[in-house]
Amino acid sequence: MFMLICQRCAKLESEMRTFVFGLMICLASVGVSDDTFPRFRGADATGVADDHPRLPTQWNAEDNVAWVADVEGQGWGSPIVVGDRIFVSSVVADEPNVEPKSGLYLGKGVRDPAKGIHHWMVYCLDLNTGNQIWKRESHTGRPLVPRHPKSSYAAETPATDGERLFVLFGDLGLFCYSLDGDLMWSKMIDPKKTNMDYGAASSPVVHDGQVIVVYDNQEDSWITSLDAKTGQQRWRTERSETASWATPFIWENDLRTEIVVPGKQKNRSYSLAGDELWSFDGDMSILVIPSPFAAHGMCYVSSGYVGDTHRPTFAILPGASGDIANDGDLSEGDLSDGDFSNSEFIQWYQPQASAYNTTQIVYGDYLYTVYDQGFMTCHNALTGEEVYGKQRFSPKGSFTASPWAYDGKVFCLSEDGLTYVVKAGPEFEILATNPLDELCIATPSVVGGKLLIRTLTKVYCITDSK
Fold first, then answer.
1. 28, 361, 405, 450: which sits with the fewest CB atoms below 10 Å from its CB?
2. Does the reported pTM lie above 0.85?
3. Per DSSP, which regions of 289-393 are E strands?
């Protein structure tokens, strides 16, 4: 039975805080900007797009497809968009290597760097036609580190501030280009051994003139800020984490702006100067991949490795400092003893409500979780109460891409390229299934009336043809 622990309103200050943020509940999740898609999961990192009459419910490789662009090499970053330009990264290998395939690997990884010379590439495509505007080769050489067999040496989603393009190849370096493809600066990364030799995957984020990068590994983990114009390091903070790949989240709440990064040892928040604001041990999964995001005035943090019995989701209120769960203790291994009710800032907690790879989505008042093994759950986003338990997708599929939403529907893209269209609300109902019949790991992007889906070899621009 799921255990639900809500905030205990023991102090007047805590009660007032809950009241203030309760007033925000009536606000739905803010959608991504209509003309830009600047980072992983969009401008606000929620995956919720503005409704648009041209955004379709149904498609396949031919129907409702405005154009299809071939993309050489392999990359799992989402397409990002500025104006009429799309940017994607990729790595092209001169020799054949391990081909990615769908399904769980359960620890079976590639233990040696990939063979042959590789080319770390950046492509700019025209949003209206799919034609290539420019391409740049950021680096040429042999990989120095192994990678997950399903991953890529271009696993990260680029980011932009609207003037510059920031392309991170996680174990290699960060490259800054103008939108016209001029290299403005680059910062190489000293590659380190990662857990199970899986390689890096956390994407960069940009805020107020600085680029934030997290590199958790088994030797020297850190979070750093680089000046967006010059690439000069503003600050660097060491992290005692070894096995997390989540993209950091810039949480702009009513009290302050902070950088939230989950981790196996502790979930942490940093100031824009790199100082730790708060942290807590949530007994997270041994591998931490889902990225934080905010909705209804709360920040959602989760992790859910398939082999763990504790796969938690936390809803956190703003304004915290220090250890926000000092009365929570899961160290004895008895999950029934885990108690976060004394925390003023953990609004609610569910011990078994997170996926392994995919990031959850809050759409309206509901929190949806798409599990790698092919099912979905729904919880009340405000209280954590279960709305419906595990519902199996049919036909079956496995999932790495995170869900997105618009027009009263939640969209879930399987690794086999099949998108399940699920009706938003308290009952699970599949409205349509849309096949592309190619491996899909990247999370799609939505801009205006266009849905961009990246497959193993292509980028599809999908829009209602009517």
1. 28
2. yes
3. 293-295, 298-302, 313-316, 322-323, 346-350, 361-363, 366-371, 375-380, 386-392
